[in-house]
Specification:
about 500 residues; alpha/beta; 4 domains; about 45% helix; elongated; vWA-MoxR associated protein middle region 2 domain-containing protein; VMAP-M2
Length: about 500
């Protein structure tokens, strides 16, 4: 009975480092030999089932190796493959776990031969081969990327490439790289798109964020093998253009508006290659909304004179105090023939982060830390506040001072005292969202809109505002254009760094 007791112990305790199931294989034999004294444990294998989809398993392993369930195939690929094989064979088939390259190759060869019994459904034959071929290519892509990007491959780089290529957050699996590669190949392709377009965009995004011409050349060879060179090069050109446009922007500050509208505005042209942004101040013809709009238009005309002939100024950051942000939509300012937001992507900032006050460095460093922690989030990191929370000022202040609301704060309604709320929240939360006062109600409310469009924010807001101005918005229940945002990302915080009081006077400098 020694062998029986040893087998019972192994099945009860599991085999560390094995897959999710215990098989009658060499690993089990070794585990039994280590527990059995006075007996010789042997193993004989007899295989008379040419259609078996996996080995002879005995039980579920209670101590599988982390991540062993997928092998060279992630959960998404395993799901699609299991579905295809089950529909093809129409019987209780369990795929081997973990799936190896050899397993995929054997399944591909088996399907290619077409020798199936009466339980097979020929309509799913092609689907099985398609999924296997895709997973083999995905496994090869993962190996390629781990080699080509070995010196720079990080979770943050992968997430940045995911955001740049347009893949949703749900594409990130437990094994980040494999999850993204499989999602791009299995889920992202549109009905009328080339099958590898999404994958080519993701790899082009990796080449872009890596900043290496050698990486781009090696990944272009991958695209050539798949016949996706055009898609890869198109994406690479698009990302390079977006990077250039993103780096070039005009910053307009209304920080001088202490109580009402400013008498002058400050403007900086960022991304021209100068060591410091070019700065100029413009007087407002009148200290009101119209005068401010005309001053911004003058700043735009000045900025265009400094641009290379082929460059276009797209991005405009408008920084203003809380009392203006609560009642003013900068993109709707008349700056010439058109509204500012018609031809420019406007992002709204709070001018308080440019204030050379003693606490500015601490405030902005806390925002940088919060933004980096948000980069690892797979869910929408918004803390929604209702009227009851905003009404308890003391409790809200305690939450702010203890770091509870230090990422994204969303207001689920438009407060009557919006200015007071913003003044309380802005020093703590780098991102604040709220609905327009005239926003139409929807079933999911603002939280549903933000959750649906989170991956496109804040860059999706300018287009949403433009769409809201169109006739198509008539009758729309709720849309992204109803969302107002004050957004401080890392590039903005870096722009604010020179304004921070970081220099500590030495003893010889003290009076």
């Amino acid at each position: 009975m020694r062998l029986s007791f040893a087998l019972a112990d192994v099945l009860r305790e599991g085999i560390a480092g094995a897959g999710p199931a215990v098989y009658a294989d060499a690993r089990l034999t070794d585990a039994l030999r280590a527990r059995t004294v006075g007996q010789v444990v042997g193993r004989f294998e007899y295989d008379n089932d040419p259609f078996a989809a996996e080995g002879l398993w005995l039980a579920r392993n209670v101590r599988p190796a982390p991540g062993a369930a997928g092998g060279v195939v992630g959960p998404l690929g395993l799901q699609d493959l299991a579905e295809a094989v089950t529909m093809w064979r129409r019987d209780d088939i369990r795929l081997p776990a973990p799936l190896t390259l050899a397993d995929l190759g054997e399944l591909d060869a088996f399907a290619r031969e077409g020798k199936v019994d009466g339980s097979a459904d020929p309509r799913w034959y092609g689907r099985v081969r398609q999924v296997v071929a895709t997973l083999l290519r995905c496994a090869g892509t993962v190996d390629l990327l781990t080699t080509v990007l070995a010196s720079v491959l990080t979770s943050e780089l992968l997430r940045e490439a995911r955001r740049l290529s347009g893949l949703p957050a749900e594409a990130e699996g437990a094994e980040l790289l494999r999850g993204l590669v499989e999602y791009a190949a299995l889920r992202a392709p549109g009905a009328d798109e080339p099958p590898w377009k999404a994958s080519a965009r993701f790899l082009a995004a990796l080449a872009q964020v890596s900043g290496s011409d050698d990486v781009a050349a090696r990944l272009r060879a991958w695209a050539r093998d798949l016949g996706a060179v055009t898609e890869f090069n198109d994406a690479l050109a698009e990302f390079a253009r977006r990077r250039r446009e993103g780096e070039l922007r005009l910053v307009v500050s209304l920080a001088g508006a202490l109580t009402d509208w400013p008498e002058e505005v400050d403007a900086w042209l960022v991304g021209t290659g100068e060591p410091l942004p070019v700065h100029r101040r413009f007087a407002c013809a009148s200290p009101d909304r119209a005068g401010t709009g005309r001053a911004i238009g003058t700043a735009l005309a000045w900025a265009r004179t400094l641009l290379p002939a082929t460059a276009t100024l797209v991005h405009v950051d408008v920084a203003a105090p809380a009392h203006l942000l609560a009642r003013w939509r900068p993109e709707e300012s008349k700056v010439g023939l058109r509204l500012l937001g018609v031809n420019h992507d406007v992002v709204v900032r709070w001018s308080g982060r440019m204030d050379p006050a003693d606490e500015s460095a601490e405030m902005n460093d806390a925002a940088r830390k919060a933004l980096r922690s948000m980069a690892d989030c797979t869910t929408v990191p918004v803390e929604w506040l209702g009227a009851a929370v905003l009404g308890d000022h003391a409790a809200l202040e305690r939450g702010l001072s203890t770091g509870r609301y230090d990422t994204v704060v969303g207001l689920d309604h438009h407060p009557d005292a919006l200015q007071d709320v913003l003044e309380q929240l802005l020093p703590y939360a780098p991102i604040i969202l709220w609905p327009r006062q005239d926003a139409r109600p929807s079933d999911e409310g603002l939280a549903g809109l933000v959750r649906q469009h989170w991956q496109s924010l804040p860059h999706g807001l300018p287009a949403a505002y433009r769409n809201r101005w169109s006739e198509q918005h008539e009758g729309c229940v709720a849309c992204l254009g109803d969302v107002r945002a004050i957004w401080h990302d890392e590039p903005w915080l870096e722009f604010c760094r020179p304004f921070e009081q970081r220099v500590v006077a030495g003893p010889e400098e003290e009076w």
